[in-house]
Amino acid sequence: MAEYLLEMRGIVKEFSGVKAVDGIDLKVRRGEVMALCGENGAGKSTLVKVLSAVYPYGTWDGTILWEGRELKASSIRDTERAGIVIIHQELMLVPQLSVAENIFLGHEPTLPGGLIDFETMYSRAAQLMAEVGMPQIKTALPVSYFGGGQQQLIEIAKALNKNAKLLILDEPSSSLTKSEIDGLLRLIDGLRAKGTACVYISHKLEEVAAIADRVTVIRDGTLVGTAPMADLSVDEIIRMMVGREIKNLYPREPHPVGDVIFEARGITCYDIDNPAHKRVDNVSFTLRHGEILGIAGLIGAGRTELVSALFGAYPGRSEGEIRLDGEVLRISSPRAAVAKGICMVPEDRKHHGIVPQMAIGHNITLSTLPRFAPSLLINEEVELQAMLEEIRRLGIKAGSPALPISSLSGGNQQKAVISKMLMPLPRILILDEPTRGVDVGAKYEIYKLMFELARQGMSIIMVSSELPEILGISDRVLVMGEGQLRGDFINESLTQEKILAAAITQLPLAG
């Protein structure tokens, strides 16, 4: 039996003459959790797409050995048949189908004559869900009934049904709560004990430290090194990833905070499916000139609904009053909000932040097109200069502004969305989960940008599920729970414990 379950040797993948992956080696043993770390754009996704035959054999150079034999897969079906299964950051589930139907999609058991054997399918689905820690789940219910953490486990059950020997997890915890992450790590530990190997890709290095046996770091498409997790610290992984030491991830910079310029009064958002239920219930707050206001709370607390309503983007019925410089604003759409100086970077960049097949540069200038078309015709030269300047200013890793934005890594897409929302020169910038799926180096750059914008007088509202981020960046923190405002705290000696206490208590806590 070969020492390694998987060996990737000298993998090279080019796009238009540019090497996204240049001579990378990766080795994984049976029952091992290998963490794959690197900045956005480092080549992680390209490497696993080579491994899973999203990029089939013949479109890249190098060698893949699987269980000691060369693997020449021409499709995802080939790699899954071998036992290599990838779970993407964006879950590949069909919301309208049941849990069992999703688990067996494309591999349905059949009766003589070709009809689906539903009894076997539901029985086996129940067994698989028990294996991933959800024995009570009703597998006949549509996937849409379940939250993000449960859907992640359904994806893993789907992979186990394909007899996965190697499970590739790409940013599996980006949308999970702390308790859901803990459950996911316990599940991976259980799979390891049964001999299933995992390649774990995550920017959350505390998770890497908790679960990985070894760590492979790549930077700019090349291999930096591989080492046992026991021989590394989180700081050393960061240094390997970014090529420099980041002593303080939250580079707080002094900036003046002025008078109140924005007020939200009685903001209420009603559930789309159940109008009798309030997703946001009578929330009021203020925002000062040059202030960074963090909004914390558990998932489902109503944070995204609140800021979506401020931006005119909440899809259901909402009410309340907002004032800027004392003037009551009537905002019925994002276009109206941008015209009034309020811009927002949404939580879900894939569906609400980008136009995937449009060029990177055109995505960036989309919010300010009239600026480049004074006579109804776009001045392409002026627009191109603006594109290049924004790409340079935000440090977006792009070969050309003409490439589709979908070709960028998630972190660079996020930078492009931020750039788009800065182009109108807003007075108030709303950032909903601005660093989700973003590597540590890009996080640092985004934080630096936020402090620079605040120093220049821009007011920022930041929603984040990461309490260290809330505490490291905010001047003041609002805490929401069950749609209500539970706390309003100056960020001086504020702790995670106090924020969590406010989030779960039924009564507002004094700041």
Automatic annotation (TrEMBL):
Membrane topology classification: Peripheral membrane protein
Location of the ABC transporter domain: 6-245, 262-507
A GO-annotated cellular component: plasma membrane
Cellular localization per UniProt: Cell membrane
Alphabetical UniProt keywords: ATP-binding, Cell inner membrane, Cell membrane, Membrane, Nucleotide-binding, Repeat, Sugar transport, Translocase, Transport
Pfam families xrefs: ABC_tran (PF00005)
Molecular-function GO terms, alphabetical: ABC-type D-xylose transporter activity; ATP binding; ATP hydrolysis activity
Keyword Protein biosynthesis: no
Coiled coil: none
NCBIfam families: PRK13549.1, xylG
Stated name of the protein: D-xylose ABC transporter ATP-binding protein
Native species: Telmatospirillum siberiense
